[in-house]
Each structure stands twice: as structure tokens, then as C-alpha cells.
Amino acid sequence: MNGTIQAPTLEYAQLAPMLVVFGAAIVGVLVEAFAPRYLRSAIHVPITLLSLAGAFALTIWQVVKGVPTKPAAMGAVAVDGPSLFIWGTILVLAFVSVLLINDEDHFVAAAAAVPGSAEEEQALHEGAGHTEVYPLALFAVGGMLLFPASNDLLVMFVALEVMSLPLYLLCGLARRRRLLSQEAAVKYFLLGAFSSAFFLYGTALLYGYAGSIDLAKISAALGVVGGQETLLYIGVAMLGVGLLFKIGAAPFQAWKPDVYQGAPTPITALMASGTLVAAFGALLRVFWVALGGLDWNWSPVLWAVAILTMVVGAILAITQTDIKRMLAYSSIAHGGFLLVGVVATGAAAGQNSKALSAILFYLVAYGFTTVGAFAVVTMVRDAGGEAWHLSRWAGLGKRSPLLAGIFAFFLLAFAGIPLTSGFFGKYAVFQAAVAGGATPLVIVGVVASAVAAFFYVRVIVLMFFSDPAADGPSVVLPSRGTAAVVGVAVLATVFLGVFPQPVLHLAQNAAQSLFIR
Amino acid sequence: MTTHYLVLSALLFAIGGVGVLVRRNAIVVFMCVELMLNACNLAFVTFARQNGNLDGQIIAFFVMIVAAAEVVIGLAIIVTIFRTRRSASVDDASLLKY
Amino acid sequence: MGESITFWVLAVVSVIAALGLVFSRRAVYSALMLGVVMFSLAVLYAVQDAPFLAAVQIIVYTGAVMMLFLFVLMLVGVDSSDSLVETIRGQRFWAVLAGLAFAALLGLGIGNAVLSPPKGLAAANRAGNVPSLAELIFTRHVFAFEVTSALLITAALGAMVLAHRERAEPKQTQKDLSRARFVRFGQLGRNPGPLPGPGTYARHNAIDMPALLPDGSVSPLSVNRVVARYEAAEGTLPPEVERILQEEALSERANGHVARPLGEEDGK
């Protein structure tokens, strides 16, 4: 035993955005422990927002200073162009979602009290609330930042759990329809744990194959190690199951509508935007950095998954009568469109950066629109909470033309109508796919978009061309936070739809450097 | 010998998977997931010996940490829903459906 | 040779225990079976040059995780058992079939991989298993190690959010409780004393036998509900007790009382 361990080198500057977010989360926990109840919310909100803004600033500073070309933290984290772009996206989306969370009316007063009990009544009466949602959300955001940036499968697994555990909890904290919310938490948790077991077994088999969990070393082992291809193939398949589950790709999409419906709407917004972005970042990194040399094998499978996801998402969305479930299925369909972009990655570096920049742009565009749409959902309310049933939305255009107009605009962006951000997102992804030789996939994608457009238009027709019910839902006056969220989302959707060039350019720059191999 | 260990871990993993699909008590389902994680750990430890490096053992160690945290969260969620419904069956929780 | 004997014994034990976990009806048995699997795996780790993991497996898994499972099972009710009714027709059959296919795929896939003879950990463990692991954890994997702290904090925070109730009013003292009991006696005529023990004035001296009142009738108060529920499931409950319990439940429902579980009962 030599007894001395050389101290590891940690590139604090590169890791700073993550460290700031995690640090703020821990400060939040301390606030929970020591601050008096009536002050907590007032302390949490600035800490949370400032830390997210600070992390965003640090990310920008990183980009300006020059994108690192070597993995950081002893090879555990890869802070490269795509990572930084994804970090920026996640941080902005998280900032916006926190503004929604700030409207604390959505969260349960006392999670430990049985729904409908006298105890809950009293907690509601006293105006109690769970301010723990802020540190929990920050932990989730920290996991989201680490997930796409992890450079080995162990860090990726830990990040997956850091991201998921707070979300499982947050799902169960809705103030109204608490049974639904608790069920959503149980379902999300059990299925999430099940899928992470698959991810882990896949990791084990890849480790057995390559003798290492570094993505780069796995890539180097491809084709060198002989006689163990079965380990590799089964491992890749199981790893893929774990990742596709997080994205909600068919046939692993079953959790998404349930969880999106049951979770408090601000948390749904955070999941629909941040988690999707993070999961796609991780998927790209694994399939590209580690398994790029194997694309001959996984590409056909991803073709099938992409087609199935688009079709399932688009068709099942038509049958929905609940606005949140409909948005969930729309998110599944968009996951399918994004997978088209993943399939479009190819052997040539040029093609790769084209597909990558298309995906990055799409993620930004979709993230903003979806947060905005969920923000609108929080504002249309019945006596018992948000009005989810589509029939309740009938005639909203006559009652509140502005809100209905904004929502219609978001739906058109989902459908990919020109002059909205969704159009350029789809256009870029499909163009990359055609260039990558995946034309049949693009045809399916276009047909699925048309089907999807049908149900978006149906909702718009329902809002504007049918008579409002006499006892219809009321549109609450938004709090400043919610109004800001809707405003930002509208601006982003318009801006990306009319002048996509700056963001496309950014995405191209980010994609230029590709992932660190 | 390595193959034997691996086949054992595959068997345990598959049994756990069947359990998740078959059982309906949420706690038992969760135990089956734990069984799957244990099977993964066996595979990691075996591969560590096969490959002659300690990375596998490190991962197994991390899996245990993660599993411990996951159990706390999972059981807290299950207890909460039990308090509400007085039942831990996955089927009784069925407000959500297509 | 020694290794293969250990392996075969423990392999058989752990597979049987795993099957027991999946197919036993009572959740407590499942938990105990899981404990057996975890113990066997700990020994297999020790055999495979992973003494540290063997210890951690026993401390963390069988020590902490299993105990937590058992606590929650006790809390949720040990007598909860799965119904055997299928909600999705044929689900069980297809699940088992899929499991078999999956096991065959995994087993064949792994069994077919041509593995070189194991390199062994002698070189990697030269400084001792624990120091070598420590070196890796605190150098190469230090970031993952630090990030797991976020997991642990999340877990603690989550348990607090979901399970901790803050007391809204001052704790009731013995005096308050006793006063409340007598107030209830005055208003509703409910017995303020402790419940009668089972077997009092009875012909048996067993806790599943109800006490007899001086007039020879059965006292429902003396029947332990958990025992009664268990016996009702087994079909060994004396018919008279069953009738009385049912009548009581009916009248409680009619009065708008929800049957309270044991332990929150008054007068204890």
C-alpha cells in the first residue's frame, strides 16, 4: 500500500453552472430548516431565480471564453458545444417554469394529510404550503444539466436518478385532484425505477464488452473486441430502452399522459420542456459518442421506433378529451419528430453537425411553446381547479379572445405552421433527414404532422366557433409570473418563427464542435 | 465460471422483470425492481473480475447508494397513497386511464 | 472447486428465493425472500474478490433497505395480500411468457459470448480492495460521488415532505385525553375504561376467543380486529363473533362512522 492518493483535478470553471444550481438547492434546504415559515417563500424565489440566471450567465461566459475540448472532472463530464447549448436551453426553460411554480396555488398545502381530511382543511385554511418544491426543482434541474453532459455511463446513471427522484416527488404534490396526482407519482416512480434497471443492465453488458464505462472507450472497443457481439447488442438494446423511456418514445410512452395529467401543471411544464431536452441530449451522446460506429445496427431499430412514436402520438392525441393528456400525446409525437433527427445522424461529420443543429433548434422551439401552452392551461379554471376537459374550453374565444388567441397560436406552432417556431424546427429536422437518406421517414413524419395538425385545428375550432357554456370556466387574471411566462413563450415562438437565423446560427456553432469523443 | 455468474444474474433480472409485470401490490412490485438492481450488481461484480479492473465494483457501490435513496422516495410515495386509499394495490389506483 | 460448490448452492438458493419473491401471495414472505437473495449475492460478491461490496451489501441492502421495506409493510398492514383476479385478461400468462423469452434471450446471448478467461483482480487489488476502491472513488469517480449527495438530500427532503406532519395544535396530555374520554362517556355512553381482554369468562384461554359477558353473550369489544380479519379470511372465525362484528360494522356505517382501524381505537 503506497498510502497516497493523488488529488483529483476538477475544472471548477467548466462545472460552474451545475455547481451553482446544486449549491442553490442546498441553500434552499437550509432555508427550509432555519427560516421561519412566513419568510421561506420570499427567500426561495429570489435564490432559485438568481441561481438559474447566474448559471445561465456562466454558461454564456463559457461559450465566449471558448468551448473546452477536453472532458472535465477527471473525464466524468464533457462540457462541449452541444452540452453548453443544451445547458443554456434547460436553464432558460427552468427559469420560466420556476416563474410558474412561483404561483403556489398549484401545490398541496400539507402533503402528509389525507385528502379531504379535517387536517388538510386546516392546513388550507392556515395558508400552509410546501416551499420545499423550490430546492426539489433545483435538484431536478441540476440532474438535467448533468444528464446530457455525462461522459461515462456511471455519471449518466447517477444524473438520471438525480433528475428523476425530485420529479417523482413533485408529481404527487398537486393541490387539487390529489388522488390523481398521487397515482401519477406512483406510476411514474414504479415505471421509472423499472426503466432505470434496464438502463443499468445495459450498462453492465457494455462494461462487460468494452471493459470500461467511458463512452469514448466503448466507442474504441467497437470492432476490436471479438466474440462478444451478443453482449454488445443486448447491452445497447437495454440501454436504449432506458433512454427511450425517458423520452417517452413508443412503445414506452404509456407513462407520459398519466403523469402529465396528474402532476401539478407547472411541474408538467418543467418535465415537458427540461426533461425532454436533457433526455435527448443524453440519447444523442450515447448513440453518437459511444455507439457511432455501430449505427448500421441501431439505426433500423430507431427508424421503427421513430415511426411508431410519431404514429402513436398523433393518432392517440385525436381521441383525447382532456387538454393535458392531449398535450402529453403531442409531446410524444414531437419526440418522434426529434427521433427522425437522431436517425439522420450519419457517418460524415458535416451531416452529423447538420442533424445535430436541427435537433438543438427543434428542442428550443418546442420547449418554449410547450411551457407557454401549459401556462395557459393553468389560467383556465373551474370551481374545482383547472378545467381540463376539452368540452369546457368550448367558446373560450368569445369569452377571452386574447388568451384563446395565444393558445391557438401555440397550437399552430405545435402543428408547424409557417411563421411559427415549430415550422422551422420541423423543416430543419426533416431537411437533415432527407440529406441523411431517410426520406421514407420524412414522409411518415409529414403525414403524422398533418394528422397532428388536424387535432390542433379541432381545438382551435372548438374554442372559436362553438358557443360558450353558460357555466363555463373562468379565465383567472394571471399572476405577474404566469403573465411573464406566457409573454416570453409567445415572443420566443414568434421570434424563432420569423427570425430563426440567430438561434439556428448558435445551434450550428454549437453543433460544429460536435460532441467530445 | 464467469458465464455461470452472468447467466445467474440474467435469470434473476428476468424473474424480477416478470414480477414487476405480474404482481399488483406496489410494494412487491418495488421489491421486484430491487431484485433487478441486485442482478445488475452481480453482473457488474462479475465483469469487474472478468475485465480485471475495479470500475464494475465502483458502479455496484454507486448503485447501492442510488437504490437506498430510491427506496426512501418510493416507499414515502407508496405510504402516502396508502394513507389515502388504504390499499397498496396498483389496480385500485386507476383513476388514470386512456 | 470451493468456488463452484459455493456458486451452485447459492445459485439454486437465490433463484428459488427470487421465484418465491414473485409468486408468494403474502408481501411479508416476498420481503423475506428478497432478503435471502440479497444475502446469497453478498456471499457471491465475497467469493468474487469484492469483500467491501459484500459488507456494504449486507449493511445497506439487508440492513437498511430491507428493514425499511418491512417497516412499511407493517405500517401498510401485514395482512394485505394480492388478489388473484386478473384485471387484464391473460396478462399473467403473457407476462410469464415474455419473461421466459427474455430470460432465454439474455441467457443464450450471454452464454454464447466467447469470454476469455477472467483476468482476475489480483493486480487491481494489489493495495487491498478497500484502498484501491477508495482511490478510484476519490479520483476518477469523484464527481459522481459528490453528485450522489444530491440524491441523499433529495431523499431526506422527500421523506419529510410526504410523511412529516407538523403539529398544528399543542400535544394532548394524559389529563386532556382522560377528560375527553369521560366527556365522551357522558355524551355517548362509551366505556371510558380499557377494553376487556379476550378470554375473560370464556371457556378458552386464547386471544382469538371473545370474552363472555356475565349474561353469557359475546363481547365484541374484546375481539382483536386484526386477528378477526385473519380468521375471517381463513374461515375459522366463530360464527357468533362474525355475526356480531358484521352487525357492529353495519350500525357504524349507518351512523356515519367510518370503521376506524385498530390502534386509533379509543380507550387504549
TrEMBL record, chain A:
Would the keyword Secreted turn up in this protein's UniProt record?
no
Under catalytic activity, the entry for this protein gives: a quinone + NADH + 5 H(+)(in) = a quinol + NAD(+) + 4 H(+)(out)
Looking at the UniProt entry, the stretches that span the membrane are: 12-31, 43-64, 84-101, 133-149, 155-174, 186-210, 230-255, 267-288, 300-319, 326-349, 355-380, 401-421, 441-465, 477-499
The way this protein sits in the membrane is described as: Multi-pass membrane protein
MF terms (GO), sorted A to Z: NADH dehydrogenase (quinone) (non-electrogenic) activity; NADH dehydrogenase (ubiquinone) activity; quinone binding
Subcellular locations according to the entry = Cell membrane; Endomembrane system; Membrane
Lineage, top-rank taxon, reads Bacteria
Q: Is the keyword Disulfide bond assigned to this protein?
A: no
Q: Record's Gene Ontology CC terms? A: endomembrane system; plasma membrane
What biological function has been recorded for the protein in this entry? NDH-1 shuttles electrons from NADH, via FMN and iron-sulfur (Fe-S) centers, to quinones in the respiratory chain. The immediate electron acceptor for the enzyme in this species is believed to be a menaquinone. Couples the redox reaction to proton translocation (for every two electrons transferred, four hydrogen ions are translocated across the cytoplasmic membrane), and thus conserves the redox energy in a proton gradient.
Quaternary structure, per UniProt, is:
NDH-1 is composed of 14 different subunits. Subunits NuoA, H, J, K, L, M, N constitute the membrane sector of the complex.
What family does the Swiss-Prot or TrEMBL record give for this protein? Belongs to the complex I subunit 2 family.
State what protein this is by name.
NADH-quinone oxidoreductase subunit N
What is the species listed in this Swiss-Prot or TrEMBL entry?
Planotetraspora silvatica
From TrEMBL, chain B:
> Per its database record, what is this protein's job?
NDH-1 shuttles electrons from NADH, via FMN and iron-sulfur (Fe-S) centers, to quinones in the respiratory chain. The immediate electron acceptor for the enzyme in this species is believed to be a menaquinone. Couples the redox reaction to proton translocation (for every two electrons transferred, four hydrogen ions are translocated across the cytoplasmic membrane), and thus conserves the redox energy in a proton gradient.
* One GO CC term on file: NADH dehydrogenase complex
* Database matches in InterPro entries: NADH_UbQ_OxRdtase_chain4L/K, NUOK/Mnh_C1-like
Keyword Transferase belongs to the record: no
Q: Which organism is it from?
A: Planotetraspora mira
User: What is said about its interaction partners and assembly?
Assistant: NDH-1 is composed of 14 different subunits. Subunits NuoA, H, J, K, L, M, N constitute the membrane sector of the complex.
Q: How does it sit in the membrane?
A: Multi-pass membrane protein
Kindly provide the name given to this protein in its UniProt entry: NADH-quinone oxidoreductase subunit K
Q: Work out whether the entry's keyword set contains Cell inner membrane.
A: no
Listed Pfam families: Oxidored_q2
MF terms from GO for this chain are: NADH dehydrogenase (quinone) (non-electrogenic) activity; quinone binding
Its EC number(s): 7.1.1.-
* Family (UniProt): Belongs to the complex I subunit 4L family.
Top EC category:
translocase
Per UniProt, subcellular location reads as: Cell membrane; Membrane
Q: Which coarse location class describes where this protein primarily resides?
A: membrane
Reaction catalysed by this enzyme: a quinone + NADH + 5 H(+)(in) = a quinol + NAD(+) + 4 H(+)(out)
Write out the GO biological process terms: ATP synthesis coupled electron transport
UniProt-listed HAMAP family: NDH1_NuoK (MF_01456)
From TrEMBL, chain C:
Source organism's superkingdom?
Answer: Bacteria
How is this protein annotated for GO cellular component?
A: plasma membrane
Catalysis performed (reactions): a quinone + NADH + 5 H(+)(in) = a quinol + NAD(+) + 4 H(+)(out)
Q: Which GO terms describe its molecular function?
A: NADH dehydrogenase (ubiquinone) activity; quinone binding
Where this protein primarily resides, as one coarse class? membrane
The first-level EC class reads: translocase
Keyword tags:
Cell membrane, Membrane, NAD, Quinone, Transmembrane, Transmembrane helix
Q: What is its EC number?
A: 7.1.1.-
Q: Where does it reside?
A: Cell membrane
Query: Its membrane topology, per UniProt?
Result: Multi-pass membrane protein
* Membrane-spanning segments: 6-23, 28-46, 52-73, 93-115, 142-163
Q: Into which family does the record put it?
A: Belongs to the complex I subunit 6 family.
Q: Which PANTHER family match?
A: NADH-QUINONE OXIDOREDUCTASE SUBUNIT J, NADH-UBIQUINONE OXIDOREDUCTASE CHAIN 6
Q: What job does this protein perform?
A: NDH-1 shuttles electrons from NADH, via FMN and iron-sulfur (Fe-S) centers, to quinones in the respiratory chain. Couples the redox reaction to proton translocation (for every two electrons transferred, four hydrogen ions are translocated across the cytoplasmic membrane), and thus conserves the redox energy in a proton gradient.
Q: What is the official name of this protein in its record?
A: NADH-quinone oxidoreductase subunit J
Look up and give the organism this protein is from: Planotetraspora mira
Organism placement in taxonomy: Bacteria, Bacillati, Actinomycetota, Actinomycetes, Streptosporangiales
